[in-house]
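One-letter codes give the sequence; each number marks local geometry. A record appears below:


***
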Amino acid sequence: MIAPHSSSASPSPRPVRKAVVPAAGLGTRFLPATKATPKEMLPVVDKPAIQYVVEEAAAAGLDDVLIVTGRHKRAIEDHFDSAFELEQALATKGDTVRLDAVRDPARLADIHHIRQGDPLGLGHAVSCARRHVGDQPFAVLLGDDLIDPRETLLSRMLEVRDRYAGSVVALMEVDPAQLHLYGCAAVEPTGEDGVLKVTGLVEKPAPAAAPSAYAVIGRYVLDPAVFDALERTGPGRGGEIQLTDALQELAAAGTVHGVVFDGMRYDTGDKADYLRTVVRLACDRPDLGPEFVAWLKEFVAGLPGGDAGRTERHRAA
């Protein structure tokens, strides 16, 4: 006897269309520059860091972006709004290149803003998006964590969410000595290359207590169940509500997966990495790269220990 075909397959997960960009941090590592300027508005070549993040969301098909800001962050809202006087002045001059550059931020997606009243941590910032997101899955992109525009990390995470449902985090293998700077994941293989099942998460563990070398970096695709988990999450490390702690609850229920990323990532929240980011992206620009790279080679050669420096010391000897 042939058994009847079962039709109890679970329905396909809902598509992800919304992104949340937390941008309410104080930016204390960049003082005094960030005393009056949001850290997310610091220029990376000629665009603010947060624009790269919104461009990444739009490129992955997320056409509804909510930016969570705080006090003194009005510049972010202005950047993604139209600027009538400036646009009119550029149009009068016939400067279409700069006119398009000014208009582009407002045209990237349907962009919304909400303020996080109190700086209570990343988890609290994400919970501020609950009314806007509703019962839909959504992506979270941290405003100072840039992924090279040529990478497809977010699109890959959305594909994994389509197959496994639940939540998906981006994982990067880092030096164990650096794990105390990140959330860290306990993982199991799934049988799929580059995709792991996340069984636990720890926020900024000591190296000896880290469950693996996989750090959670600033890209998430979250099931709306995270909002209830955040409501149950009390203050954690630093006295803040940690998104990692809420995701630990979901991971314990078996609904979190990780996508391993080994591409180019830039942490613009760190001074040294911010400088490296500007240099790398400037070198990649066809309008700036050739001249800038030539100057950079000459400059580095003239530094102490560079070729020119060694030549001068040899002559002096």
The chain has twelve helices and 13 strands. Confidence is low (pLDDT under 50) at residues 1-10, 311-317. The first helix runs from residue 49 to 59. Residues 181 and 204 are 5 Å apart (CA to CA).
